[in-house]
Amino acid sequence: MASWQEFERQAPALAEVARRLMEGCRGRVLATLRKDGSPRVSGIETIWRDGELWTGSMPRAVKAFDLRRDPRMAIHVASAEPDVEEPSAWEGDVKLAGRAVEVTDPEVLEPFQLPGSDSHLFRIELAKVVWTRIEGDEMGHGRLA
């Protein structure tokens, strides 16, 4: 698993594209695993701070309970639909996979100014990042695995 900062060192061009696409799209979807192993998807927001990628959750949200029980997760960031006339101009989608580790240390939590004392904060540790796009007439992939 890698922090965002480690990912930037290992694959700077891919990290730059992934961050640009993530910052340009509020439509991020988090996939977690329910207790029975079936998938759950939830909308999320993410932020970068101190070389890490973070996400939070409202108190007692089911996605937070999913991540506490099993930290494996994936995030999908969808960009605007490709132009039918110019598909290679499509920016593409980014998918991240890894785990979300809950942080409960009050000193770490303080700068985030989370609403309420029982909100959740998770640090994302990356195992895989994939950028899917169209190159010419072909689907292209850039990945860190």
From TrEMBL:
Keyword Cell wall biogenesis/degradation in record: no
Record GO terms (molecular function): coenzyme F420 binding; oxidoreductase activity, acting on the CH-CH group of donors
Ranges in a coiled coil: none
Keyword flag Membrane: no
Bilayer-spanning residue ranges: none
Residues in Pyridoxamine 5'-phosphate oxidase N-terminal domain copies: 17-112
GO cellular component: cytosol
InterPro entries reported for this sequence: F420H2_bilvrd_red/Heme_oxyg, Pyridox_Oxase_N, Split_barrel_FMN-bd
Protein name: Pyridoxamine 5-phosphate oxidase
Protein source organism: Nonomuraea diastatica
